[in-house]
Design brief:
Layout lengths: L1 E3 L5 H6 L5 E6 L4 H16 L5 E6 L4 H6 L7 E6 L2 E7 L4 H7 L3
Parallel strand pairs: 1-3, 2-3
Antiparallel strand pairs: 2-4, 4-5
Length: 103
């Protein structure tokens, strides 16, 4: 399940989520973000029901990017129980991304 995360739905979709949330901070002009996107989509499909995947466009949601100290992209974060559990900078292969976030 992939959700477009905004300031308006962040509390409900991420902080109050019953399952872990993988957040993908990206922008349409970011080449590495575009390279990572199919990987994140595959993770969302394979882990459907176990995790929620949220995509945050940093151009549209600068406050969320600032809240998590996102200075470079792509960045993925794993949130669980309203807390950040892991933060990874870069476009990694799927297996490595899954391992780094302990999905």
């Amino acid at each position: 399940m992939i959700v477009n995360i905004t300031q308006d739905n962040f509390e409900q979709e991420v902080m109050q989520s019953d399952i872990p949330v993988l957040l993908d901070f990206w922008a349409p002009w970011c080449g590495f973000c575009m390279q990572l996107m199919p990987t994140v989509d595959e993770i969302a499909e394979e882990y459907d029901g176990k995790i929620k995947v949220g995509k945050i466009n940093i151009d549209e949601e600068q406050a969320l990017a600032m809240k998590f100290g996102v200075m470079s992209i792509p960045v993925t974060l794993k949130m669980e129980g309203g807390e950040m559990k892991s933060k990874v900078l870069g476009a990694y292969p799927k297996a490595e991304l899954i391992a780094q976030h302990n999905l």
